[in-house]
Amino acid sequence: MNNFTYQNTTRIHFGKGQIARLERELMPYHKIMLLYGGGSIKQNGVYHQVMQQLKAKQVIEFGGIEANPRYETLMKAVGIARTEQVDFLLAVGGGSVIDGTKFVAAAIPFDAGDPWTILSEYAKFTKALPLGTVLTLPATGSEMNGNAVITREEYRMKLAFGNKMLLPVFSVLDPETMYSLPSRQLANGVADAFVHVMEQYLTYHVNSPVQDRFAEALLLTLIEQGPALLRNPKDYDTCANVMWAATMALNGLIVAGVPDDWATHMIGHELTALHGVDHGQSLCIVLPGVMNQLREQKRGKLLQFAQRVWNIKKDDEQKGIDDAIAATEGFFNSLGIATRLGEYGISPADVDYLCSRLEARDIHWGECKNVDAECVKKILNERL
Amino acid sequence: MNNFTYQNTTRIHFGKGQIARLERELMPYHKIMLLYGGGSIKQNGVYHQVMQQLKAKQVIEFGGIEANPRYETLMKAVGIARTEQVDFLLAVGGGSVIDGTKFVAAAIPFDAGDPWTILSEYAKFTKALPLGTVLTLPATGSEMNGNAVITREEYRMKLAFGNKMLLPVFSVLDPETMYSLPSRQLANGVADAFVHVMEQYLTYHVNSPVQDRFAEALLLTLIEQGPALLRNPKDYDTCANVMWAATMALNGLIVAGVPDDWATHMIGHELTALHGVDHGQSLCIVLPGVMNQLREQKRGKLLQFAQRVWNIKKDDEQKGIDDAIAATEGFFNSLGIATRLGEYGISPADVDYLCSRLEARDIHWGECKNVDAECVKKILNERL
Fold this sequence. Notes:
The structure is a homodimer. By secondary structure, chain A is an alpha/beta fold.
């Protein structure tokens, strides 16, 4: 096991009715910016439940945060929040709204130039507004970590940043808020959580049985509960189990003491930035290619994954790995997610262009920093 | 899954050399009380490493905290800490030292009468001194929770209390500090951690696959790594894996959203208070009896435990449960721990006396509050 420091201070209120915790959680604050997405929370009653808790507060609303939250949109929120001098940000939505809110939280007090540099140059910031969340779509784990991914439309770039100051003070996870989600979002969420676990698990052995088995626990749960959720999206327990698995998938716990990869995510971000592929979809396209191209480097963990997660035990190791990759892709397909670039209208020429951009950025991704533009090309070419 | 609120703010520094984090962690504090046990830290070098980090501080030492830390001893520390006006408590040791330090932390500012009432009457307290820990014996999980168990010798009572204010600010977990531990302490630690997991797992189903599989992950790890640790107590990775499993076993995570039992611990505390049986030993004596006596109530989880942890799958369910109980007792024995009361010189008359004390206290233990004095008698009588 590698050395690590682990701390996660976010207070989780999990379960039906837990939105009622907001009033008490917000007691120390006066002027609250309420950030949300396209307005679905106004249809499904979540907005009303939240506003009931905010009666005693000054509330500045900022709706319209997109999937893949855009710098351009978020800077408008930053301007309003500065003018209004809000002292707390409440994100109500999925990972995009929460990620966007984190950027707003960091950008409001940022006074060392253009806040874009927080993303483009990892510019340091020493202050951030406190934030809380009401999660309505399990997927990204953003409700219990300090990370965010932001898109800048004009540059067609999707970049990540993180800081422990951006850990939500609290997050409300009420599985009932999921009842009105469309299948596509549920499927993307399950796939996203699954791949989060894989990024922190499918690397190389460092003798870490607790972390390995925790990761496998989450994978097995998502394989079992994900398709059940799509069949019966209003089953409370299924919603709850997917929600908790997705939160645990990316809150810093399973990665403590082990290497992590993230090549699938990095490549996926490019597909989203250039072609508008949903984040979850992009991961399902890329992961089987990463598993196959890096099968030697990841051999030990691939065999363990095959055996413990898919119950595949073959004398022929290569065949076992093949079967595990096929089972993983089959799982994504069972969620209704297409896993080939062609199915999204992405051509060999598009892959060439994407890789030329990465060539220019001189990337070195993955747990061994050996996923370069050439490697990405191999990965994507087998996903056509 | 049940509703829950979960938060754990303790910062964990895990790995070799992490004692070097102390200097920075202690920067905000001025006068530090250093609490430890029988002095083994002076033999194994841990004391020296810690003192190196405390050079710039005023340090008040308080050694001599016993296994099963005694109220009488701890009140001496409280007196000194008050006189010296220390502003931080640093516990260096195992669960007993850390538990004792938590009581000291709560008792120092307590001004509503005798601090014993914190234990005997769950007296409320609203302040506590901040504390940190350097863990040297994995077992109790006290390094990452707000709970403690304290013994009052004159009453032969061992009582538990807890408060989130007593969560350590930080805990240093360096597996190398374990190298000089005697086998008996290692075995007790593994058994204690194992039973902690069982208390939060072996209850009844509430459809909680993440929590169940996390618990099984810890059980499987302890079954695999525990005996390996006794064979090779200076293997770094084995020490590390047992240490992390023991911390994760009782930090509030696996119990979030599920029922918990604790009858085995409550009964074990009586054996320790009356007969001086080691805490870990007491649990190994009691647990098989709890599993057997409550086999109907715990049937679903017992079968899952049999299958997933011990790979026992029998057509005859009662036989499967019998085998799982035997495997559990066999695991304790494989650690070198005797699991029968007679092996500790405890007689049927002793059991009668113990149960008469519980009768007087009108106990209702366990996840269904149905473990009363009569039930305890059945459990212990089959453990003679």
